[in-house]
């Protein structure tokens, strides 16, 4: 089957300018970029008009929470992947902190089966490092890999014991698998819900110190050096962690890292005095100095990729107040417009820079066959409207979560159509296909 995406704008990375091209798709794969100056012969083919829209490889999000099994009131694989499609994502990697935890081959298979039948986009499951994410006993890495897990992580909590982490890394290395770490030392955090900083001081709250993250980053870089494993740091949020990752990379340690839009855009002092728990996430919003450090680290390559850490919770859970509400905010449906508006439209980044951090770089870091629209690649594509300004309205989200601090923000760069493997899965006009 042939599909033509006609008259779209594609980015020429050499000039940084967009140019009009037609894209031919054959049997779910990219076949040809044709000159936009003349009309191709489209007799007998399906056509999609992309006039005025950017044509990009589908976005890749290597850190998301789909909540199924066990927390279907927050999200399901169906709603989470639909939300991802609406946000322009075509591949997402989901975290194992479900109930039960994804720590057996059967739970990995359950996620893969559900994703295949009910999912709107590609889903790559991570499996837990330790059984039930309790930090006591390693899971069966070989069997989990065999079942389809793409890496190991106890996201949601840090692995507190260094020997446990070293054993995990040694085993993962022997299987050629990465270890992905939520970096948090529990002994330094105990009961705090916001960062140590201006907001905590103003409200007399106990704060989460920056070193609670960086201590694990430093420890794990040493363990990665010792074991040779590919070690990937989750949701980097502090200047201290960045310093350590920079050092690790400079001496050749196999370390990579990710950052979330909120840690590039918001600081603790932006949290409203109403203590709205839609501003509560882990790691917490840090100081403006940390925000600038995260931006620079991404710019210099110390941080490799952008992820959302999409973490839906119900309105009832988020209404429990800053102290008692769970950590986490949704991310799929605001990520690209936020970053495009605040970093590309303002002139700090090129469009090419932003797109790479959300497409080809995650594919490179995790060895995925997607992320580039070169002939032969899967036709995972997003069309993006860069011109129209719209307001973030959580009531229109496809995720079950409404927990975002970005409601009301006026943004550009909204996805208009998402295609996975040559099949249109979502359009602005008609919703989920
Ligand atoms: N990021 C969050 O604030 N919450 C995540 C857990 C996590 O990513 O650590 C969640 O599962 O809700
Ligand atoms: Zn985490
Ligand atoms: Zn997470």
From TrEMBL:
Q: Which residues bind Zn(2+) 1?
A: 63, 65, 155, 309
**EC id:** 3.5.2.3
So which cofactors does this thing need? Zn(2+)
Q: GO MF annotations for this entry?
A: allantoinase activity; dihydroorotase activity; zinc ion binding
Q: Gene3D superfamilies from the entry?
A: Metal-dependent hydrolases, Urease, subunit C, domain 1
Q: How is the cofactor bound?
A: Binds 2 Zn(2+) ions per subunit.
User: Where along this sequence does the record place binding of Zn(2+) 2?
Assistant: 155, 182, 235
Q: Name the UniProt key words of this record, in alphabetical order.
A: Hydrolase, Metal-binding, Pyrimidine biosynthesis, Zinc
Swiss-Prot/TrEMBL catalytic activity: (S)-dihydroorotate + H2O = N-carbamoyl-L-aspartate + H(+)
Associated pathway:
Pyrimidine metabolism; UMP biosynthesis via de novo pathway; (S)-dihydroorotate from bicarbonate: step 3/3
Query: GO cellular component terms?
Result: cytoplasm
Purpose of the protein: Catalyzes the reversible cyclization of carbamoyl aspartate to dihydroorotate.
Return the similarity comment. Answer: Belongs to the metallo-dependent hydrolases superfamily. DHOase family. Class I DHOase subfamily.
UniProt name for this protein:
Dihydroorotase
